[in-house]
Amino acid sequence: MLHDLRYALRMFLKAPGFAFIAVLSIALGTGANVAMFSAVDANLLRPLPVPHPSELLTVGSPFNIDNLYISALFASYPDYVDIQERARSFQGLTAFTHSSVGFSRGAGEPAQARLAAVVSSNFFDVLGVAPALGRSFHSDEEGVVILSYAFWQEQFLGSREALGRRVQIGNQSFVVVGVAPEGFTGVNIQRRPSFYLPLKDWPRLIGQPGLLDARDWRGLVLKGRLKAGIGVKEAGAELAAISSDLERDHPETNRNQRYRLRTETEERAGENPIRVYGLGILNMLAIAVLCVACFNVAGLLSSRAPARAKEIALRLAVGAGRGRLIRQLLTESAIIAGAGGALSLPVGYVGITLLCRIQLGRDLVQVPVPQLDERALLFTIAVAVAAVFLFGMIPAIQTTRTELAGALKAGEVALARRRFPLLNAHNAFAVRFTGKNILVAGQVAISLVLLTVAAYVYGIFRDELRQGPGFVAERRLLMSFDTGLAGYSDAQTERFYARLLDRARATPGVVSATLSYTVPLGTNAVVTIVPEGHPLPPGKENVTVWVNRVDEFYFETLGVPILRGRALTETDTASSPRVAVVNQTLAEHYWPGQDPIGKRFRLTNAGGPAVEIVGVTKNGKYLYPGEPPTEFIYFPRRQETSRILTLIASSAGPSAALSSPLRDAARNLDPRVPAFDIRTIEDFYQKKVVDIADVSREIVGAMGLMGLALAMVGLYGLMSNTVNRRVREIGIRMAVGANRGSVLSMILRQAMTLAAAGVAAGLLLSAGTARLLRLYPLNHPIEPSLYFSITSVLLGIALLAAYLPARRASRLDPITALRYE
Q1: Collapsing DSSP states into helix, strand and coil, what is residue 120?
Q2: Could you give the dihedral angle defined by the CA atoms of residues 547, 552, 554 and 555, in that order, rounded to the nearest 10 degrees?
Q3: Radius of gyration over alpha carbons of the chain, in Å?
Q4: What is the per-residue pLDDT for 126?
């Protein structure tokens, strides 16, 4: 092996240009895949930080939003208790949810908004996580808290004296009984809680004492650890039987509630299919770049085969076996892959750095961070090894199939290979589908697909930025509050927000102010409705629609136009009839060609409360850039109390200047209700839309250019090799009367025939790729003009890549060429 390595290195030193291009090709292809794998790993594949994470499964009843393919699993507390008692497939079953709470180390200190994991008492036992300090929860324990390791370090400087200390959470006092281990960050990749509270304490904290008794409130996530020897199918069958029993015992709340199992990866994908879709596109592009890179290196190796024919023939003649020679050639490929894999890490690091620019700009929710860690390193090694066989095996076998007699007698190519003529066989430059030609045509085909997808994604984000968000983002400030942090009742919540609005509107520099449950492109809520006068498909009893609860000045403050009817007013209160404002998409879907004003829909089911439509707004963006036309409803905030609201203030000058006075105004009302997620809408829009769009465009643009460059290098290399091997033939043709133009046209014809064959194959592949892109209902069809533009550019660059060696061939001196060997 050492002999093979030394020999391979000597061969590369004799051809440094070949070695550089080959290593760089693999580095680019592998680096793109390393960056994309790191993103997929962070969002989907990275295991939970618990022992034996593959044994943990999510248990719940699906919550579906059909038009967005969202499907997450949730359960009610009574159902959790019943499943825990009846199921025999699990070692343990735990329930939890996340909640924002107010935290202070003492009763007199201002509260901080923190994220808490509210968990059942067996949470740490089921996960197999032992506290680093103190103990875990006892059965049905209340009034105690376990700190996360990072929060313990931040608030108590890692002191053991934190144990037994009383802290203030909301309006209640809790005793610190433990500290979670350092590596444990919870069981949700976007939510890292500061501490863990017993589930029994949660209803009192948020002011809803009967919440855990409601079987129709499904807001808990269940995690179950399978018993040894129990399979997912067996456990799923048991859950199906339990679901049927619960439906029979509680038909009013458990109708059509089918509990099922999902792996962690499946549940993450169901919770955020938008992210999965985007990652899927980026990974498809990265794989395409790797394929082009491997084809490029395989073509370069195949081009070297004729030059090494005599060497291989000599070694075969003196007794070397084909297996021994293939091993030598694969060793050379392994060196290329190893060097390319090593150089791919900096390339991957650049890609990961780009991806890390994507942030949400929120205090309590985080974006999973891609990392260049040991998992990425193992992936790099696996890709490099796969690349060895992908680009090295076929050229190695081809090179060793040498005709000994021909190779030993002459310097001409003497490889035993089958050719498939594409043009007239009498034309010496007829295109034959040899291995090299197929690889080059394949490179062009994959490059066309790569450029099509890259241009498609680039166009999506370009159009989104051009269209804007559908609301005014300039000079607007956001500031969120949660009265549940202080344990407010509904009446106290209403008084707090009324006084907050009065003080905000009286603050110098504030033009207008309003309250909203969320903001456009934020995390919206959903309701199920039954539109009156519109029959639903068979088997469907209601539809799920995104909603927001807003104050009367919401549309004015954000500049959202009312197209028909009226906006919500301060008279739309809990004592008045239920009303709503809907957007154009919802109105046109359920009442096409009709005036939607005065139409009604019912909440939950056909027997639910009726809601009258009083206004229609212009469509906007509600969830993410590139979303299709989405149905949306605005409810009056005053008709249903919400403890979590966002203050939106518009200003005459820079909105950031309002941050301090508005925060002080809120703190003067009650320091136990802290402001969090304080940001300007411009900053929010920058992080949520512009940064994502810019990063996505840079990544897809870079991968498209890499694929195009690699394909053109492959075409240029093939034509240069062809010209070099046929110098004597070109000299003979020119000596018997062929002019420079005819030589130039013959070589260009060969190159462009290969490029055209690749384009034709690429168009067929692109048609299939277009179907994949439409699996998710993006409102951006692929226009035929896009194919025409990309094909024209690709053929133009291919012509340029082929012209340089063709021009060199046409300028050969016939006398010199005739003497060439």
Answers
A1: coil
A2: 90
A3: 33
A4: 94
Rounded (10°) angle between helices 273-304 and 740-773: 150
**CA–CA dist 33, 283 (Å, integer):** 7
By three-state DSSP, how is residue 800 classified? helix
Which phi and psi (to 5°) does residue 695 adopt? -60, -45
pLDDT of residue 287: 86
Please tell me the least confidently modeled range out of 105-109, 200-204, 309-313, 406-410.
Answer: 406-410
Q: How many CB atoms lie within 10 A of CB 492?
A: 16
In this structure, the chain runs to a length of: 821
- Quick one: pLDDT band at residue 400, thresholds 50, 70, 90? low
Going from the C-alpha of 769 to that of each of 36, 268, 330, 763, the distances in angstroms are 19, 25, 33, 10
pLDDT of 421: 41
Q: What is the pLDDT of residue 178?
A: 95
C-alpha closest to that of 625 among 274, 190, 365, 356: 274
β-strand pairing of 562-565 with 579-583: unpaired
CA pseudo-torsion sign 767, 768, 770, 771? positive
Give one DSSP letter per residue of 184-247, joined into a string: ---SBTTB--SEEEEGGGHHHHHT-TTGGG-TT---BEEEEEEPTT--HHHHHHHHHHHHHHHH
- The residue with greater pLDDT, 370 or 146, is 146
- Rounded Cα distance between 405 and 710, Å, is 36
**Is the model's pLDDT at 64 over the cut of 50?**
yes
Classified as helix, coil or strand, 182 is coil
Mean residue pLDDT of the chain comes to 83
Nearest residue to 649 (alpha-carbon basis) of 637, 664, 639, 659:
659
Residue 118 in tokens: 């509210």
Other beta carbons within 10 Å of 329? 25
3-state SS of the chain: helix, strand, coil percent to 5?
50, 20, 30
Of 520, 515, 489, the residue nearest 502 (C-alpha): 515
User: Inter-axis angle of helices 691-725 and 784-810, to 10 degrees?
Assistant: 30
State yes or no: pLDDT of 712 exceeds 60: yes
pLDDT band at 8 (very low <50, low <70, confident <90, very high): confident
Split at pLDDT 50, 70, 90, the class of 16 is: confident
Look at residues 30, 770, 742 and name the one whose alpha carbon lies nearest to residue 386: 30
Q: Please classify residue 394 by burial: count the beta carbons closer than 10 Å to its beta carbon, then call 0-12 exposed, 13-18 middle and 19+ buried.
A: middle
Pick the closest to residue 217 from 208, 225, 226 (CA basis): 208
* Angle of helix 691-725 versus helix 322-355 axis, rounded to 10: 150
Contact 96, 199 (CB under 8 A): yes
In sequence order, which residues have a C-beta less than 8 Å from that of residue 472 and are 6 or more positions away?
558, 559, 650
* pLDDT surpassing 80 at residue 718: no
Query: What distance separates the 2 farthest-apart alpha carbons in the chain?
Result: 102
pLDDT at 52 over 60: yes
- Model confidence at 408, in pLDDT bands (50, 70, 90)? low
pLDDT over threshold 80, residue 717: no
Q: Mapping DSSP to helix (H, G, I), strand (E, B) and coil, where does residue 531 land?
A: strand
Q: Tokens 């390595």 map to which residue?
A: 5
Residue 343 contacts by C-beta under 8 Å, 6 or more apart in sequence? 23, 24, 26, 27, 31
In angstroms, the Cα distances linking 44 to 48, 277, 369, 682 are 10, 12, 12, 30
Give the model's pLDDT for residue 523.
67
Element containing residue 323 per DSSP (H, E): helix 322-355
Nearest-angstrom CA–CA distance, 587 and 595 = 8
Over residues 209-260, the pLDDT tens digits come to 788 989 988 889 999 999 988 989 999 999 999 999 999 999 888 888 889 9
One-letter amino acid of 763:
L
Task: Give the 3-state secondary structure of residue 7.
Answer: helix
Which residues are CB-contacts of 708 (< 8 A; sequence separation ≥ 6)? 447, 450, 451, 794, 797
